[in-house]
């Protein structure tokens, strides 16, 4: 059963110097109990998309399209209904949210707050529920009396997850839930989220720039570039056999767990993501694309079928040819210069050479 449906969702921020089209025509669905990963570089619109789902955007943001949560039109909800939906039906764990805990209130009181505000429990029952939630996220009940500064970053993030679970929502949106945590704690928190959503049948939208993390936790992956979804499909397939050159570059940018060689030969993508106020014409990725064609600068790109249950916004997919593998230049070419880091210019030069050779 479909829990969440986004239809042509767009978000534009109005700022003094003009308009920032942060999310552009995103259509996605999420089934009950399923997990969707949203990946993309910094500025690709991931957090804007997440905040739009619960109408948490600032006033200067104009939202278009449609968001249906459990069949209800989120953009048409009254503020009263919207407040009831937040926490109780869908909750969000923000990017770096552990820093957002109130430093002068005990952990237990902060976890109990959504339960009390939504009238879901009386104080005694809320205390019991807090102990239960702390147990679910692997913290002892006595921690409810602690203040945030008495906990580590990983423990604080566990508290945020307990808060998100408090009202038994049907959907949790986790925006970079492990950013700023060390790798060991990151793995623990990810395993925790994965287990909790599976155990309670909660739907999950997890946002990260790290495709490998998303592929591990989520069933489906959507890759965003410049506010648009450029590839979507089953997570293992998108991660291991991406059809869009940008997804390939993103997948190759992280070392493979258990493969030490991949750590020594990182692959990267040259250039910076585009300024949303000055988007390139045609396919927004064309100035950075290692397999660009002449037509890409004027092409009206769309998400085209790219295999069973998959779509990708690339002309190579539309013409039903496989995407040439020059898409991810190998950063190890710099090893002779004594470094495995890939300076952007060097990667660009390699990509241009590869293209010239191919043509
Ligand atoms: N309140 C705002 N006002 C104006 N522009 C904004 C605002 N918030 C975000 N933006 C712009 O919208 C675009 C998308 O930002 P967003 O925070 O959604 O990206 P992101 O993919 O979450 O990036 P990151 O990985 O760095 O968190 C960026 O160009 C950003 O500068
Ligand atoms: S449409 Fe063209 S520029 Fe865009 S990703 Fe495909 S080949 Fe590259
Ligand atoms: Mg973000």
From TrEMBL:
It is a peripheral membrane protein. GO terms for molecular function: ATP binding. It is found in: Cell membrane. This is ABC transporter ATP-binding protein. It comes from the Bacteria. Its main location: membrane. The lineage of its organism: Bacteria, Bacillati, Actinomycetota, Actinomycetes, Streptosporangiales. Residues 4-251 form the ABC transporter domain. Residues 323-343 are annotated as: Disordered. SUPFAM superfamilies: P-loop containing nucleoside triphosphate hydrolases (SSF52540). Pfam families: ABC_tran, oligo_HPY. SMART domains: AAA (SM00382). Belongs to the ABC transporter superfamily. Keywords: ATP-binding, Cell membrane, Membrane, Nucleotide-binding, Transport. It comes from Nonomuraea insulae.
């Amino acid at each position: 059963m479909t829990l969440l449906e986004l239809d042509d969702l767009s978000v534009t921020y109005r700022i003094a110097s003009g308009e920032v089209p942060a999310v552009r025509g995103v259509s996605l669905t999420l089934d009950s109990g399923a997990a969707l990963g949203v990946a993309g570089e910094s500025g690709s619109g991931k957090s804007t998309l997440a905040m739009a789902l619960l109408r948490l955007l600032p006033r200067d943001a104009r939202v278009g399209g449609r968001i249906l949560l459990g069949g209800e039109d989120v953009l048409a909800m009254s503020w009263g209904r919207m407040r009831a939906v937040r926490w109780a039906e869908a909750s969000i764990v923000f990017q770096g949210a552990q820093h957002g805990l109130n430093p002068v209130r005990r952990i237990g009181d902060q976890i109990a707050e959504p339960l009390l505000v939504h009238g879901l429990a009386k104080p005694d029952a809320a205390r019991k529920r807090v102990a239960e939630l702390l147990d679910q996220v692997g913290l002892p009940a006595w921690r409810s009396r602690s203040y945030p500064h008495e906990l580590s970053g990983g423990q604080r993030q566990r508290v945020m997850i307990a808060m998100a679970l408090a009202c038994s929502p049907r959907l949790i949106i986790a925006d970079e839930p492990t950013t700023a945590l060390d790798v060991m704690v990151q793995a623990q928190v990810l395993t925790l989220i994965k287990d909790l959503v599976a155990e309670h049948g909660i739907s999950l939208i997890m946002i990260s720039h790290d495709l490998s993390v998303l592929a591990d936790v989520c069933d489906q992956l959507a890759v965003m570039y410049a506010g648009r979804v450029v590839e979507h499909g089953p997570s293992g397939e998108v991660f291991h056999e991406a059809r869009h050159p940008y997804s390939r570059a993103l997948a190759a940018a992280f070392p493979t767990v258990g493969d030490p060689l991949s750590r020594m030969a990182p692959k990267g993508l040259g250039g910076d993501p585009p300024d949303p106020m000055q988007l390139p014409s045609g396919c927004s990725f064309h100035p950075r694309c290692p397999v660009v064609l002449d037509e890409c600068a004027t092409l009206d790109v769309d998400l085209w079928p790219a295999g069973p249950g998959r779509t990708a916004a690339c002309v190579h997919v539309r013409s039903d040819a496989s995407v040439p593998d020059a898409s991810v230049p190998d950063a190890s070419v710099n090893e002779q210069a004594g470094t495995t880091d890939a300076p952007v210019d060097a990667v660009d030069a390699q990509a241009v050479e590869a293209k010239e050779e191919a043509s």
